[in-house]
Design goal:
This protein has about 170 residues and is α+β, with helices and mostly antiparallel strands. It contains 5 helices and 7 strands; from the N terminus they run βαααβββαβαββ. Strands 1-2-3-4-5-7-6 form a 7-stranded mixed beta sheet.
Length: about 170
């Protein structure tokens, strides 16, 4: 897949595609991280319903990577850090497994950082499963470092580490 990529703000009509990307990651990328009962919480209908709620609640905080001829292959959700509103936060970043390695994650994360910076945030955080070594290596390569924060959300039952990054000045998505 070497088609042109357009990063743009998500619209309500993207819920089906965002749900499909999320579901492919949830069942594929997390197969060795989350127990089957946790992964079974989402199927096609519940994944789309989740992204419909997300897009209705915070439409300006979601960007998609739209690949010419292939549609939406990645999605990032961001906003104020719920633990400290002085910081930005990346809530989720998903790239469809068949599009991983093409730079979509890096492009989406960079775009989200630009939006957060334009919103006045100088730093941002995100949570990643402690055992997700591929994601942790990806984020480290993008300048995200552990800040000492840890948690175990009851819904997932798996340890997470908080990463933080200073946000450089960049041009936001229009």
């Amino acid at each position: 897949m070497t088609a042109p990529v357009r990063v743009r703000r998500a619209v309500p009509a993207d819920a089906d595609a965002a749900g499909a990307v999320f579901l492919a990651c949830w069942h594929g990328s997390y197969a060795d991280l989350l127990p089957p009962p946790v992964r079974a919480r989402y199927d096609g209908a519940s994944a789309v319903a989740l992204w419909r709620r997300v897009l209705a609640a915070a439409p300006d905080g979601v960007l998609v990577a739209d690949v010419a001829g292939h549609g939406v292959r990645g999605v990032v959700r961001f906003g104020a850090d719920p633990d400290d509103a002085r910081r930005g936060h990346v809530f989720s970043l998903y790239v469809h497994p068949d599009a991983q390695g093409l730079g979509l994650g890096r492009t989406l994360l960079h775009a989200a950082a630009g939006q957060l910076r334009a919103g006045g945030y100088g730093t941002a955080t995100l949570w990643v499963f402690a055992g997700n070594h591929a994601a942790r290596a990806f984020y480290a390569g993008q300048g995200w470092t552990p800040d000492g924060g840890t948690r175990v959300e009851e819904a997932y039952g798996e340890p997470e580490v908080r990463l933080r990054r200073h946000l450089p000045a960049v041009t936001p998505i229009q």
